[in-house]
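User: Reviewer 2 asked us to show a designed sequence for the structure in our supplementary figure. I'm pasting the structure tokens here. Could you produce the per-position amino acids so we can include them in the response letter?
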């Protein structure tokens, strides 16, 4: 598989093209489309999936490989005598649970597998739901329970000789094998298991694609079919984007709050946006502006009435904070906002997530450390910029996954691009978004324009 992104466990990659929106315009969870792609080893399953994903141009696709679900080979087993092509080599229970959880929009942990050591790696990948979930693997259509979770079942039918030739090349180059070992394994296990278990799965397929990724016509037809199935389910990305771009600055939805553009606020922004501003000044004015933003954000927290007695023995009818408040810092940018937050909110617990975009500007979760959220928690999300809105969506989704209600989330950002912030609001209409500035443009490279450049680089000086 081409390494367009993500986590590489030696040769196989869990491809997650972007992250999910999960919700329709009314905030309801959408049903993702689950596709199973089966076929012999090196038939081109992964290559076909990649082509379909590229053609589809849907934002949220998860491509899982059955290889991630190989059971641990017994310690005393000889890899040369072990049948990796038998159904018993796979953890079907985990596969079924994973696909079923993903269908429900739940977060899942996917094991990583190493073909060189024939074992699971200690770390897992965290994957969130998607519009389209694809499971590819030699026996992905073998289990009825798994098939029942699939909306479209595909079999890639590539000539045996072609597959063997490709496998030889790949296994020697990428999986640390010798010519002899590949041929031995092929004759002893791969070919017999193909005949006994894999080929019989063809009868379950809705679509059979001869010649794998060479079959451009079949791939195009499949893409169109998936598109129409997605439309039936209410995934209308193009329409949504068009509607969003038609929203004018005057019709900004009520949960997007831009702080009052006083001269003082404009002056701070001017310093932050100026390319000649020194790091010292950038940090100073960032702290100042973020403090004001956070104060404004906190006005959305629930308060209760409280009466206190003043030192001159009079009652004062005041207010007290009426909830537990946490913060979620979206690293690295969010760390620029932590100091002013700690100065305002004594002892606040700050969770951290590291979300980084790949070369296709798709966000991926690399790290999370979270406090114990509850349905009563209110959370301030700290991220100084909202560009495309994709990583912001992911941060919100993580909170929802941990039981924080959407209405209890307040997203605090210094500068947001119009499109990104509208998209975030579209996905999560109840999240309050508090920003200091709303910029009109987003460049092809994903930079907010006019923007302030890379916020954390300017803050930390690198
Ligand atoms: N149409 C093709 N022409 C040439 N090589 C291909 C083609 N499709 C796949 N390959 C190569 O064959 C190997 C296996 O392809 P892959 O798509 O990973 O198959 P699978 O997922 O079924 O094992 C890879 O090294 C890939 O680059
Ligand atoms: N430790 C392992 C595990 C699996 N295999 C072989 O991988 C093939 C499945 O992967 P594809 O990408 O080709 O679908 C399967 O045929 C196993 O023989 C292995 O060699 N070693």
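Assistant: Here is a per-position design you can include in the supplement:
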């Amino acid at each position: 598989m081409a390494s367009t992104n993500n986590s590489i466990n030696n040769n196989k990659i869990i491809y997650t093209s972007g992250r999910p929106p999960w919700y329709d315009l009314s905030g309801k969870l959408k049903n993702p489309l689950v596709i199973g792609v089966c076929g012999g080893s090196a038939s081109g399953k992964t290559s076909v999936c990649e082509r379909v994903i590229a053609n589809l141009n849907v934002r949220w696709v998860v491509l899982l490989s059955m290889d991630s679900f190989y059971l641990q080979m017994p310690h005393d087993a000889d890899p040369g005598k072990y049948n990796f092509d038998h159904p018993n080599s796979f953890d079907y229970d985990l596969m079924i649970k994973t696909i079923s959880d993903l269908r429900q929009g739940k977060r899942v942990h996917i094991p990583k597998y190493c073909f060189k050591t024939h074992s699971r790696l200690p770390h897992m990948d965290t994957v969130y739901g998607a519009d389209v979930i694809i499971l590819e693997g030699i026996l992905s259509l073998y289990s009825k329970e798994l098939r029942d979770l699939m909306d479209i079942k595909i079999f890639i039918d590539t000539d045996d000789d072609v597959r063997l030739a490709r496998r030889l090349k790949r296994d020697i180059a990428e999986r640390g094998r010798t010519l002899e070992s590949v041929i031995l394994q092929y004759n002893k296990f791969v070919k017999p298991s193909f005949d006994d278990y894999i080929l019989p799965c063809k009868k379950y397929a809705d679509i059979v694609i001869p010649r794998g990724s060479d079959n451009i016509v079949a791939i195009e037809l499949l893409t169109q079919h998936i598109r129409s199935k997605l439309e039936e389910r209410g995934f209308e990305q193009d329409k949504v984007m068009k509607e969003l771009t038609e929203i004018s600055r005057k019709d900004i939805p009520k949960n997007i709050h831009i702080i009052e553009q006083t001269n003082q606020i404009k002056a701070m922004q001017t310093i932050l946006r100026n390319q000649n501003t020194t790091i010292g000044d950038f940090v100073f004015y960032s702290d100042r502006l973020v403090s004001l933003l956070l104060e404004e954000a906190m006005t959305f927290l629930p308060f209760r009435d409280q009466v206190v007695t003043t030192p001159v023995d009079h009652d004062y009818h005041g207010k007290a904070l009426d909830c537990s408040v946490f913060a979620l810092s979206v690293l690295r940018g969010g760390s620029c906002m932590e100091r002013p937050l700690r100065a305002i909110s004594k002892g606040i617990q700050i969770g951290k997530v590291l979300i980084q975009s790949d070369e296709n500007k798709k966000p991926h979760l690399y790290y999370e450390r979270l406090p114990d959220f509850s349905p009563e928690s209110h959370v301030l999300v700290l991220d100084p910029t909202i560009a495309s809105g994709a990583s912001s969506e992911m941060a919100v989704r993580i909170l929802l996954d941990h039981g924080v209600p959407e209405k209890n989330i307040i997203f605090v950002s210094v500068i947001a691009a119009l499109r990104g912030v509208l998209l975030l609001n579209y996905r999560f209409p109840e999240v309050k978004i508090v920003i200091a500035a709303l910029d009109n443009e987003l460049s092809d490279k994903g930079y907010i324009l006019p923007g302030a450049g890379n916020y954390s680089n300017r803050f930390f000086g690198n």
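For the response letter, you might also mention the following. The radius of gyration is 26 Å. The domain at 7-235 is CATH 3.40.50.300 (Rossmann fold).
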